[in-house]
Design brief:
The complex is a heterodimer.
Chain A: E1 7-14, E2 22-29, H1 32-43, E3 51-56, H2 68-76
Antiparallel strand pairs in A: 1-2, 1-3
Chain B: H1 12-32, H2 41-69, H3 75-80, H4 91-94, H5 100-121, H6 127-155, H7 159-172, H8 184-192, H9 202-215, H10 237-252
Helix pairs in contact in B: 1-2, 1-8, 2-6, 5-6, 5-7, 5-9, 6-7
The chains are: A alpha+beta, B mainly alpha.
């Protein structure tokens, strides 16, 4: 339930050192401090995180779903962009 | 009620552990009453999280009380089979949830004390109590931060939220003195270095309260008359109702599990 005084915040959590922060969901809160506490209370109850980022949802610039074909369709027909045509020497190991 | 209450041999250390366990269980139970009823989902989860922290603390303290007493009373028997007059919690934690401001002010007044208390208790000569203190302190530090932020926002919010927060402070203030109360049993443990004297936390507690209350544009009540009785089993009328709900299942169906 939202109230007139609360805005939406996006929550990103980094689960381990060396990994990137990953989007996990959103919370309602009146300000950044309460948003941080709400994120902690909702998204880190089972030891999920070592670090939290909070971003006001209205600061995120999102692609328009209506532009989906123009934005993403062209790349689907270009499989040669995937590096699957190279022989990787065994000595290289994991790339 | 099908099951009679147990009797507990309250040596100073058993009594001490029961008092602290009862504080945590009763406050945890009060917070759990908000589950599904909080003003917003985010706060519903926050209150339930704090409830679980406190109930976890009470379990460790009850287990230790049972071990020290060594009469076959485990954590469940101590929580479910003692009558209201056998409960040893401070009166503050059994006060009804009231509105959100009352719940937050009650949490703030208690956490400001408990955070200091457990931090000092980490140096207890009793290894079990020191370990319980170390775990509890981290949890309580967050409870203090969470409740402080809400006190500030309620006090420095709208006219109505300010009035409700001030009303809660006035209603609950007389129960804060008992946090610092010690009797002869506890004094003997203090002398042995097993527990700390809460009196030495008073100036730090007062400073925390003053700081947050002033930031919140609220007023610390001027009255210094304090109510007590919970530590020796003289409770307000609210605790009996709370216990009848908390204990009903185990009293009616002893040993029930699911």
């Amino acid at each position: 339930m939202s109230t007139p005084n609360s805005q939406l915040w996006e929550v990103f959590i980094r689960s381990r050192n060396g990994l990137a922060h990953k989007h996990v969901g959103s919370v309602h809160a009146a300000d950044a401090t309460l948003a941080m506490q709400a994120a902690r209370d909702i998204y880190t109850r089972r030891g999920e995180g070592l670090s939290i980022w909070i971003v006001p949802s209205n600061s995120i610039v999102a692609s328009d779903p209506a532009d989906k074909d123009m934005m993403f369709e062209p790349s689907l027909s270009k499989p040669y962009r995937h590096p699957t045509f190279y022989e990787v020497p065994d000595e290289v190991g994991h790339m | 009620m099908a099951v009679a209450s147990i009797s507990v041999k309250e040596t100073p250390l058993v009594l001490y552990a029961l008092r602290r366990a009862d504080d945590a269980l009763i406050l945890g139970h009060r917070l759990s009453e908000w589950c599904g009823h909080a003003p917003m989902l985010e706060e519903d989860m926050a209150l339930a999280n704090m409830a679980l922290d406190l109930i976890g603390q009470s379990r460790e303290l009850y287990s230790y009380a049972g071990k020290v007493e060594d009469a076959g009373n485990d954590e469940d028997r101590l929580a479910y089979l003692r009558d209201v007059r056998q409960y040893r919690n401070v009166l503050l934690v059994e006060q009804p949830n009231g509105d959100f401001a009352h719940t937050i002010i009650r949490q703030f007044l208690y956490s400001a004390f408990a955070d200091l208390y457990w931090r000092e208790m980490m140096s207890s000569s009793d290894a079990t109590l020191a370990a319980i203190a170390a775990k509890s302190e981290k949890e309580t530090a967050y409870h203090l931060r969470h409740s402080s932020e809400w006190v500030i926002r309620l006090g420095d919010g709208t006219d109505e939220s300010n009035r409700r927060a001030q009303d809660a402070l006035e209603d609950l203030w007389a129960f804060t003195g008992e946090l610092f109360h010690v009797d002869d049993a506890e004094r003997s443990l203090i002398a042995e270095g097993v527990v700390i004297d809460p009196e030495r936390l008073r100036s730090a507690w007062t400073a925390t309260i003053n700081d947050v209350v002033q930031t919140a544009t609220l007023m610390v009540p001027a009255r210094d008359w304090m109510q007590k009785g919970g530590r020796s089993g003289n409770h307000s009328e609210h605790l009996g109702h709370l216990l009848s709900e908390l204990q009903s299942l185990q009293r009616s169906f002893p040993g029930a599990t699911w």
